[in-house]
Amino acid sequence: MHTLLRGGRVVDPGSGFDGLADVLLNDDHVEAVGPGLDAPGATEVDVSGLVVGPGFVDVHSHVHSIAGQRLQAMDGVTTALDLEAGLMPIERAYAEAAAAGRPLHYGFSASWGAARAQVLAGIAPDAQIDSGLAVLGNPQWQRSSSKQELAGWLSLLEAELAKGALGIGVLMGYAPATEPGEFIAVAHLAAKAGVPTYTHVRELVEVDPAIPVDGSVEIAAAAGETGAAMHHCHVNSTSGHHIDRVLVTLDTARREGSRVTVEAYPYGAGSTAVGAAFIDPDRLRLKGLKPSSVVILETGERVRDEGRLRQLRREDPGAPCLLEFLDEADPRDRGLLHQALAFPDAVVASDAMPVSWPDGRSESTEWPLPPGGATHPRTAGTYAKTLRLMVREAEEWSWLEAFRRCSYLPSRLLDDVAPAARRKGHLGVGADADLVVLDPDRVTDAATYADPTRPSVGVRHLYVAGVPVVSEGKLDTGALPGKPLRGEPR
Question: For the chain, which domains are there?
Fold first, then answer.
């Protein structure tokens, strides 16, 4: 089946092209790009006045549902990968996504946290998938490992890589007191296997002088020592007011030849489980935050004091919550968020969170989504908000640079582990037919902390493997063309 997108402003970060052209899709790949293409019998779509580019590749999405992926589709995403946390067992994760169907392409890393939880706490991987965020607050897996335990969970990670995991996801921030040598061991494994790591770093030394090693220094040092490709997740949320120093640390490492990459999102609040190590009242105090910086997602409760926070962490450690680390109403804090996004070659990644409803559901095939859904607004709005801020308002990024940050560079993180990724993030002949068509004057986020499931505005068309998931701004609820992106067995 041929589809001809006629007369749009085509932006291809792979070739550097930015100009008026047509794009011809042949089933699941790009057949031609150029002016005045002739394609008798093709389905023709008039995209004049719109921007056409490769669909956004989100390397940090915890959305494992049709409902959540539909929100991301309306935000311009065509591939949504869970690489920071990952899932284990990897075969179950891929099988369940394939069985249910997905609007977007999907993939997973090998889960460092799940491997450690199995060996150190006896929590079976299947139980971890079923329990969701609850395992993050379990202190049993957050301790350092013996030599035998270290060998045990490294072996589990190696087995997951052999089954097609897209690298290793490391939740170091959830076990911040662990022996630094363990992280080096993970980096050595990644370097040996030729796969990336994706790390939520541990605390910074400015926040906790007693931390075994500064989080940003640790990832830079591990990359330098082992040669592994190491990706620093959400540098905005883990750095907070210390973003200047962190970015200098990472830039120095890159200039010295280390393979360190960075991601950011445009929000001043993160989302996690209330039992996470860094939401301990003592650790909040070290960050200059208070219990009132924590908001429970499902109830909207803003935690009043340390006693209540300790109670919540004890009674329901897996309860999703927001953590406000920067004040988006404060010009200085907004500047820090801007600085993280503007850092050279930083990629945009959402850290999208699951959607849940008060009756306990975590999935819905209704569209629009039923009212009352709880999530973080970054699930629905990360990319549209970034485009609004960086392209239209600040005028700091051209459209070519925006697609480079949202599509091209994220795909290149995966080139070595998953050769199929080389067909993503650009519009070269033979590239995957994953495209987004935007209204450049209207694209914006609509989700807020109070109403987090409002879809973004301005995505006029979205093609996933050549299938229209969004047409004329409307989502096709029957379209589930997502395919797995898997690593080559290691």
Answer: 55-274+323-422 (3.20.20.140), 275-322 (no CATH)
